[in-house]
Structure formats: structure tokens, C-alpha cells
Amino acid sequence: MVATEPLIWHVPEPPGRRNALTRAEIVRTAITIADAAGVTGLTMRAVADALGSSTPMSLYRYVRNKDGLVDLMLDEVSAEVDVPAAPGGDWVADVRALAMSLWDMIGRHRWYAELVDTRPPFGPNTLARARFLLTVLDTAGLRPAVGYASLLDNYVTGNAMSVTRELAMFQRFDIHSVDDLVAYAGEMANDSLDSWVLDMPQLSSDGRFALGLDCLLDGFAARQARMEP
Amino acid sequence: MVATEPLIWHVPEPPGRRNALTRAEIVRTAITIADAAGVTGLTMRAVADALGSSTPMSLYRYVRNKDGLVDLMLDEVSAEVDVPAAPGGDWVADVRALAMSLWDMIGRHRWYAELVDTRPPFGPNTLARARFLLTVLDTAGLRPAVGYASLLDNYVTGNAMSVTRELAMFQRFDIHSVDDLVAYAGEMANDSLDSWVLDMPQLSSDGRFALGLDCLLDGFAARQARMEP
DNA sequence: TCGTGGAATGTACGTTGTACACATAATGTA
DNA sequence: TACATTATGTGTACAACGTACATTCCACGA
After folding, report:
1. Global pTM?
2. Strand D within 7 A of A17 CB
């Protein structure tokens, strides 16, 4: 029952002295870099360079290792997700708003979707959001709440990843307009998705996200109605 | 409109000579390694070692680079997914069976979920599955079909990733039984998910997957009914 | 039998994360 | 004020990764 290495949350930040670095500063810088350069651009050296007079090794006192830094980054941006103090009356609205807020946050920090599933989700902000979601679902009678909650989270991050990947693919093949997409689909006619791809721009990524979210919530509602009529 | 580097599918396998390697052999070996050692154990050196008298560089003639190898691996295991020759009458049953088959395949190749979203999905087997799914959804009146299809795929792979991560976490914290889990939840009482985690084993991962799938399909059915009554 | 070209290999480079030893600067104490 | 202590930053170095390049090897057609 002993973790081979403690998570960063259980390792207190070392006391700072004048001019010393801080976790907050390191994390903020790392987030800026990841926002701009993506997940591949996020290296310890890049973070150290951006901090000015620092070598990579300076960071390790504060964040233990790169996983620790990533943990802190993930939780830091999780704070941008609006978590109401208390559930409103309508559980569908509550869940929907929470998912939307998470989606918006990921839109600002695309790397989040790629990294969140690589680390255990035990940061304070992440836990606060999870607790709220679980409360709402549980009082709605959707049990086990963890099951429904993980369905929702997976949906949001999964969708974000797919959109990110799609975007990267468009860039890769120099697709900037619908016309480009049509031409490209023609090029791959033999073994491609044929004419279906052409429907893709019909729905914006935000629209697609909302559609799927509503589908999922429909299913939730059906299960709830079936439980306590 | 020109790809910076062609995908492996557009690069024909070089002709072999006696005792020469083949793509199929390399891919098969790589899959075996990834099955056993996970995505971190999958290195070019490991594959070359497993092939016996080979250095990493031998592989590059056949697979171009590691991305090419991963593309081939992903498509190879995609062949294990049952794709019917033609749609049956019931679109819900068709979609459900396809998703289940994909889920089962990922259960045998856990690395799939972690890698599938890192590469463009243009392998022949992948495309065959996509085409079938799109046909079923489109004839069911769920349009744009690509939207619904991506919702489904994301759901399956997203759920697989979450289960994989969960499993890894249990291993990491030496959790082997429900009792262990309870004890662990107690340890993290202060900032943890409190009592909710305890509900987790109530539903097997397969059960949770089926639940979410049915929720999603409920939503699909509701949209379809609304469209063509 | 020998030359030729395709196939395999060996060497080496740039990057990554990060361990370890050392230098430095700030602080507590005398 | 002066020194010892210790927190803090830096430099060097290493293993592992993907893979470019040059070289060696070997099977085949002549």
C-alpha cells in the first residue's frame, strides 16, 4: 500500500528565499510554453530557458520531476473551470455547464487533453470539480456516480483530443478551406472516407461537442427516469 | 496540398529476398512486444532485438520510421474487429456490435487506445470499419454521419484509456482487492474522492463500458426519432 | 567465377529526462 | 561584524530514445 514515489501533492513546496523560484512561477511559465509550442515543445530545458537565468536542474527542487510539473500544470488550468459553490436545482443544467466550462478551458489549453489521461487525477482543483460532479450525479440518482462521472469526463477529453488531432492533420496536409478539403478527399478517393468527409464542416467542433454531450445526457436522463419514476 | 512526408500506406513494401525481413513479420513482433511491455516498452531496438539478428536500422527500410510502424500496428489489430459484409436490419444492433468488437480488441491490445489518437486513421482496415459505421449511421438518418461516428469512436477509445490508466494506478499503489481500495481511500481521506471511490468496483469495466454505450445510443435514437417520425 | 546492387549493420549525433557533485549566496549565531 | 551552516542554483554527465549516414555483407545473374 506504499506508493513507490509520492505524488507532488504530498511533497510540500520547499520554503523560498529572496530571488528564489516558486512552484507557481515555474508552472505558469510551463503553461505558457505548452500553450504556444504544444506538448512536444514542453521540455524542462525550454521551461528553464524561459525562466531566464536557470538551468533545467533548478526546477527539480520545486517540482521533483517532469511528471510532477505536469501534475501541477493540469491542476492549475483546472482552476479555470467554473465549479459552482452548490448545485443548482436542475442536474442536467449543472452537468452541462460543468462540461461546457471544461471544454472551453481545453480550448485555451489544447495540451490538457493530451496529458490529463497520463497522470492520476488527484490535484485539489481536479478533485473539487470531481466532487461537485459526483454530488450532482448522486443526488440525481445516477449511481454509481463515479461511473457516470467518468463517462462524462472521457467524453469531454476524448472529443477535445479528436478535434486537436483533426486540426493537426489539416495543418499537415495544408488544408485551410472547405475547397482544400474537397480536393484532398478526391486525392484519397480510392481508400478514403469518400464523400462523407465532405459533411465534416457542416458542424463546427463546438457544435459537434454539444451534440454528443446532449446525446449522453439524454441517456443519463432516460436511466434516471427509469430509476425513480 | 502536398503532405510533407507520405503516409506508410502510400509507400509500397520493398521487395524481399530470401531471409529478408518483411513488414508483416516486423509488425507482428512489434505487436507482441507492445502487448507484453506496453507502449513504453515498444522501442525500435526492442523490436530489432526480438527479431533476432537485426539492428534497429534494419527495420527502417520496411517501415520508414517509428510512426510508420505504429500506423501498421494500429491497422493490423484493427483487422481483429468484426466488420459485417453488409448492415443488418437493426442499426442499433449493428453499431453496438461494432463498438463491442472494438472494445474487445482493445482489451487484447491495451496500447491501441494510447496510440490510435496520435496517428491519422487511414489504414485499410481502419477505413473499412469506418465506412461500415458511416453507412449504418447514414442510412439510419443520423447526419452528419461523421459526427456521430467520431462520437462513438471517441467513446470507445476514451473509455479504454481511462480503464487502462485506472489499472496502472491500482498497480502503482499495490491495490489488488476491494479491501485494499477501501484502505487506500482512507489514506487519502483529506483530499480524495471520499466515499465515492468505494462504489467503483460495483460495476466492472465491461459493465461501465456497456452502460455508457447504451446511454450514447439512447441519445442517438432520440435524435433519429425526432428526425423521421 | 566474378561483379553488382540490394539488404543488413555499425557508428554516431542530437534530444530527452535527470542523477550527482560542486559552487554560491543567504541566513542564524557568536 | 565575522563566521559556520544550509538552502539554493549550476555544470557536467549519462542512459535511452529515434534515426541519418556510411560501410559491409551476401545472394543472385552473368
Report:
1. 0.92
2. yes
